[in-house]
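Anyone else keep sequences and structure tokens together like this?

Example one:
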Amino acid sequence: MGKENCTTVTEFILLGLSDVPELRVFLSLLFLLIYGVTVLGNLGMTALIQVSSRLHTPMYFFLSHLSFVDFCYSTVIVPKMLSNMLGKENTISFLGCLVQFYLFCTFGVTEIFLLAVMAYDRFVAICNPLLYMITMSRTLCVELVSGCYLCGAVCSLIHLCLALEIPSYRSNVINHFFCDLPPLLSLACSDVTMNELVLYIVATFNEVITIVIIFTSYLLILITILRMNSAEGRRKAFSTCASHLTAIVVLQGTILFIYCRPGSGSSMDTDKVATVFYTIVIPMLNPLIYSLRNRDVREALRKLVGSKIFF
């Protein structure tokens, strides 16, 4: 690409998911509904855990932060996307684009590590139940959660610093519905091999570390469950882990598909569909998965609603 076609950029145009007016209206209404459920579900889960004394355990402490992170990274993307889909202008400022990417990446990486921490928590609860509350002390839980947020912030800062070094772009039109890094790098005039390599290495490293923790934890959990004499104990252990495993498989699978590939392995439209799934759909599903499959959460909600009604 000739240098005469390159220029500094003050704003970007986001193409979104579709340029068909009727489809844009339908998608806007659909995503507005999903976002409403996401906000209600995740903030409701966080509030329920805070006010219900029976949920003041390490497992629900981590779950409250997972719900908060889901709410945050969905909020970073969906309101702006809806504004662009319903409005005439699909623009976002250069600074706004980088801030959106940084916040999205921070909360996304934080969630990956939170899921690994939650797997370790389940390992301690099932394999060492008598020492669970001693091992998973309040101090350790706070340190683990703080470490998750720190990892998210540092990883995002690395990508942001490298992105800020890009001097010019051949176009300001991003073929996506938010400012993600891969479509942004595809517009750069300068050599972005280092950016792509760092993105691949950091994403792969994060995935490998978290998957190893999760796999090891659940392998030990499975061995412990199979050794249980009580059928009721095995059923309860499997039920406790099923919701967490569901959230892990869905999130990790889509992230591996998009970010842990050297080079461009599929079309941008395919990536956009996958991105919709883990940025918009998964934050809505997580509170539903954990609440519908969790008796403690259902009982706490029933007790809270009952007390408010009779009050």
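And example two:
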Amino acid sequence: MYANVAQCEVLRAYRLSAQSLESIGFRVPRKRPEFFQNDIFPDTVDTEIPAIDTQAWLNGDPASPRLISLCPRDMKPLSEAPPEVVRKRVAAVKAETETDNTKDTISAMLNRVDETDEESEKSADSGSDWGD
């Protein structure tokens, strides 16, 4: 059995146990699996049809390998797919707003700390009433 390229399966292996023989598929997780993933399944050499006939090979004629596409007829390649529409979810927008509010809160707190430090330095420079 071959790997199922329509399911982004790149390898098929078999595990033999004392009671059974299991087929295991190794799949590549993809964001848009409804399209043929031609970046991980490029055109490949056709091993069923010879690239050159016997007589031409005996004469020493050069031949280039025949390439075939693994793309199933009912699938469109990812390279020809329309661009993906990115939609922000309400939760993501809310999280961004909360992050901005948190940044503002932290900035305000840091400003207060800086002001307190400056006031402490001024009072230390003017002398202290503690030792009098």
